[in-house]
Amino acid sequence: MARVKKGVNALKTRRNVLRAAKGYRFRRSTNERAAYEALMKAGAYAFAHRRDKKGDRRSLAITKINASLDAQGISYSKFMGTMKKKSIIIDRKILAELAQYEPTTFDRLVAQVK
Question: Would the pTM of this model clear 0.85, i.e. be above it?
Answer without folding.
Answer: no
